[in-house]
Amino acid sequence: MSSKNARIVYKPQGSREEYFVYAYPGELKKWRTDKSIPLTDVVDSFDIFEILGGGNDGIAGRASKQRLENAFGTSNNTEVIEIILKDGAIHSTVEPGNFATFNETRGKGAATAENAVGIHN
């Protein structure tokens, strides 16, 4: 299994909404021809995302069961993921750890410089 994953994007016909999962492209290509490969080897997680407000830009959030039911006719994550993997397009490859994030454990308003005055000093 590759350490890089990619966003697999699926757009239902007649809809502006896009749903996506993170998967390993090499394993996905094998899975598309050999469904005996377990999904756990193909996807990074069993989370299904959508861009809140639609479009390509914006904040990604987990799709609700109701939104999945409306778009795919089921809210079963495994069934929806199989549809996305089968018919979705492979988009940007992402290297692990290459995300903009913040350290939530430092608390609200925590200073990051050692000599800064803040609530944790």
Automatic annotation (TrEMBL):
Gene3D superfamilies: Ribosome maturation protein SBDS, N-terminal domain. InterPro entries: Ribosome_mat_SBDS_N_sf (IPR036786), SDO1/SBDS_N (IPR019783). It comes from the Eukaryota. It holds the Pfam family SBDS_N. Residues 6-95 form the Ribosome maturation protein SDO1/SBDS N-terminal domain. SUPFAM superfamilies: FYSH domain. This is 10611_t:CDS:1. It comes from Paraglomus occultum. The lineage of its organism: Eukaryota, Fungi, Fungi incertae sedis, Mucoromycota, Glomeromycotina.
